[in-house]
Design goal:
The model has no long low-confidence stretch (mean pLDDT 95). By secondary structure, the chain is mainly alpha-helical. The two termini are 18 Å apart.
């Protein structure tokens, strides 16, 4: 796996999260609680934006981003516009950081302990991509349940993967 592959997958998932947020009919439905689901679509969007900006921007690029993880789960009724701005900021942070990294950086330990352990940077970045995809699925489920709209948004689209020449 290379930095380009990680970037491709994260960009794809963030694009799908953008489509999910846009598919909610209104701001209120982003925050509607659904029995059996621990988080709303709005909460997950805040969490993912903060997560990526922290682990890519603050830790790897040292861009000064300061994460407030508790607020990611405590804030409510944030507008769709603000959520989309957060997703855009996360994408910009990932892109900017990956431009600064080299494939050789992937073999080094990630510069911050993760669960009190040293983790290989490649493994950690792959984890972040799969974490993003996991929560994308939760947002998709929440949107469908909260709005009673069963239509999909082509999340985790194979069509977005590049074809081998």
């Amino acid at each position: 796996m290379t930095l380009a592959t990680i970037q491709l997958l994260i960009r794809r998932e963030l694009g799908a999260i953008r489509r999910e947020i846009e598919a909610y009919p209104d701001d209120e439905s982003l925050w509607r609680t659904v029995p059996g689901t621990p988080n709303t679509g709005g909460t997950l969007a805040l969490h993912l934006a903060g997560n990526l900006q922290h682990y890519f921007g603050a830790v790897l690029a040292k861009d000064g981003y300061v994460r407030n993880r508790d607020a990611e789960f405590a804030r409510r009724n944030v507008s769709r516009t603000e959520l989309l701005n957060g997703i855009d900021a996360a994408l910009a942070s990932v892109d900017k950081t990956i431009k600064k990294l080299k494939d050789a950086d992937l073999a080094a330990p990630y510069p911050e302990l993760v669960a009190k352990k040293k983790i290989n940077t490649l493994v950690w970045l792959a984890h972040l991509a799969t974490h993003l995809a996991y929560h994308l699925g939760q947002i998709d489920y929440h949107r469908r349940a909260a709005t009673r709209d069963e239509r999909g948004i082509d999340a985790v689209s194979v069509r977005e993967l590049p074809e081998v020449p």
